[in-house]
Amino acid sequence: MKKQIFAILLSTCMISSMPAVLMAEEAEEGNEAVVEETAEAAEESDILNVTLMETPVRGTVSDFAVSADDIVILFNNDVHGGISNDKDYSGSGDSLGYAGLAAVKADVSKAAGAVTMVDLGDAIQGSVVTTETDGKAVMDLMDEVGFDIRIPGNHEFDYGMEAFLDYAAKAGTFISSNFVDNRTGEAVFDGYTIIPYEINGIELKIGYVGMTTPETIAKSTPTYFQDEEGNYIYGFNADTPEALYDNIQASIDAAYENGADMVIGLGHMGDVGVEAGWSSLDVIQNTDGLVAFLDGHAHTVLPGTIVEDKNGEPVILASTGTKLEHIGVLQIGVSEDGIEIQPGLVDALTDEEYTAFEYTTVDEMVQAIEEEFAYLFVKVGSTDFDLVIYDPETGDRLIRKQETNLGDFLADTYREEFDTDIAVINGGSIRANIPAGDITYMQVITVFPWNTTVSVVELTGQTVMEMLEMGAHLYPDECGGYIQVSGLSYTIDPSIPSSVNVNSDGEFVSVDGEYRVKDVMVGGEPIDLEKTYTMAINTYYSSEYGDGMTMFKNAKIIKPAEGEDDIVDHDVVIDHLAHLNDVVPEDYADPYGQGRITILDAAEEADDAA
Q1: Can you tell me the distance from the alpha carbon of 572 to that of 537, in angstroms, rounded to the nearest whole number?
Q2: Of the residues 209, 299, 455, 605, which has the maximum number of CB atoms within 10 A of its CB?
Q3: 539 lies in which domain range?
Q4: What is the C-alpha to C-alpha distance for residues 472 and 492, in angstroms, rounded to an integer?
Q5: CA 119, CA 107: separation in Å to the nearest integer?
Q6: E strands, 371-482, where?
């Protein structure tokens, strides 16, 4: 395998064949000497001389100054059905959409020596058009745009394992080093692929190593990965973080051994808000041989930053956020002097791109898809204020780490419609704001795009405590399992380190120390750990144990009773609005909620101590 040594020079990072100690010694004598010696060593050894640009580019395609000397990797992650900038259909008014992606691809292709298209997962679930078509609408659009490599995200599995594997077989472009069939111990897909390029007579082979977050089982539907006896027949090779790193390193090494000149990681891993040891940062810091890592899962807008690998060598880490609001660009310039890698994001389209044939062709497909669901624009209620999951002042997503008025309203909807002691909804199930004005059926489905049903369970106060502690264990990072509540209030003390113990699939096992969740009140009274309470909750938790909430295996499901029809969550909301005379009460006007969840900060702790 070709081993490449990195040294950071000013605003760039150099890769050469020089030993690290020698590089450090030369650096002390001045940057010019280092550059000269680096280039000479690279030329003599025929190993790539690579420059990583630390400052990313933002703007339109023209800002990248693409030329025939460039290989351009266009990438996106966590589109979640964001097929256009019509937020009623896609959930985002800022999406560039698949028409925009097609136009950018065409624009880049006219100038670049080669273009490679990459999707980093979570494309086919998360909006009305995905829910109503079981993801097929997005699959068709992706086929039209054309993707060379795809990574399975946790939500690619939302329609069941059989449906996903059938889709993957037809697409033929999925890779993932660590998605494993436990019955054979073999990876379901190839762990890597190598694409050869020729730029100005220079041949360059780039290896792409794929990986999928071990959170997938907990963040999708755990039962989809099991057989009829409840045994996990699929997994993600993460019994320990070290096992995950070894798996990925083996694919990196294999790519080099099979001719790759350089290797890029493609992950649906997430840089923040994931279990310890499983992030893209952890992978980079515990492997070597990558020059870049393109990431998904966390919805982080990361145009490009430098992270050191286990040998202290720099790796570009980049991610595009979500909903196609940005398009990722990794521009690889190739010349006789070496390789220059420039990360960045396309944030906007040009007038020419909006009128391009490729844009209009895909846009016609998008409009046809959206028109199928125009019947959903029927008024079901109204609100005089925004009901939010995003901070109205900063735009930050709050629903996964803080109480919001929409979280309160939806939890109250569950509790009041099912007449239970308490009700909870995980923040990850609530996907969009409801703006002031008329509320349409379409908007409600956009908020709840999963077609999840609602159940009523009986459970002890102890189980409630375990659920709340699991929901708060990643705070202050975002967590899809963060709990929005009704009939219940609680406090989180972030100064207490989480003592939640999860297994290798991210599922709850136990709380092994002090709880960071405090002062839990039910109906105005302190929670009784031995008392049985009724709770309204989605079946993603009560029956499928989503977000790793395995404590619900101890809960008794009392509704729907045998023979009763399932009730879909967005229909519960519509029924509740009717019971409120179609108007959301002023009680929910504060976007930050009604004070059901308190988060202590250092000042509050000091006051309490005084």
Answers
A1: 12
A2: 209
A3: 378-609
A4: 7
A5: 18
A6: 379-383, 422-426, 437-440, 454-460
Residues 387 and 339 in one domain: no
> For the whole model, what pTM was predicted?
0.83
Domain end, chosen from 14, 29, 47, is at 47
Contact between 306 and 171 under an 8 Å Cβ cutoff? The reply is: no
CA-CA distance, 124 to 78, in Å (whole number)? 9
Q: What H or E segment, with its residue span, contains residue 342? A: strand 338-346
Nearest-angstrom CA–CA distance, 265 and 213: 13
Q: Which residues contact 332 (CB under 8 A, 6 or more apart)?
A: 70, 71, 72, 73, 204, 206, 339, 340, 341, 342
Q: Is the pLDDT of residue 7 over 80?
A: no
The CATH number given to whatever domain includes residue 149 is: 3.60.21.10
* Distant-in-sequence, close-in-space partners of 476: CB < 8 Å, separation ≥ 6: 401, 494
In tens, the pLDDT along 388-405 reads: 999 999 999 999 999 999
Residue 29, pLDDT above cutoff 50: no
315 vs 343: CA distance, rounded Å: 11
Token reading at 381: 């209620």
Tokens coding 94: 């800022």
User: Could you tell me if 73 and 333 are in contact, meaning their C-beta atoms sit under 8 angstroms apart?
Assistant: no
Q: Which residues contact 131 (CB under 8 A, 6 or more apart)?
A: 81, 125, 445, 449, 450, 451
- Cis peptide leading into residue 560 (ω within 30°): yes
Left (φ > 0), alpha (ψ -120 to 50) or beta: where does 28 sit? Answer: alpha
Query: What residues contact 571, with CB distance under 8 A and at least 6 apart?
Result: none
Task: In whole angstroms, give the CA distance from residue 398 to residue 427.
Answer: 9
Q: Please identify which residue in the block is written with the tokens 């136990």.
A: 510
Least confident of 31-45, 75-89, 134-148, 474-488: 31-45
How far is it, in rounded angstroms, from Cα 247 to Cα 211?
10
Return the bridge partners of 374, or none. Answer: none
Which has more confidence, 605 or 129?
129
**435 and 525 inside one domain:** yes
- Which two tokens mark 533? 């309470």
Q: Per DSSP, which regions of 427-496 are E strands?
A: 437-440, 454-460, 483-486, 488-492
**Where does a domain end: 312, 344, 370?**
370
- The pLDDT-based confidence of 562 (bands split at 50, 70, 90) is confident
Question: Sign (positive/negative) of CA torsion 578, 584, 588, 592?
Answer: positive
Could you give phi then psi for residue 560, rounded to 5 degrees?
-75, 140
Verify that 154 and 262 share a domain, yes or no: yes
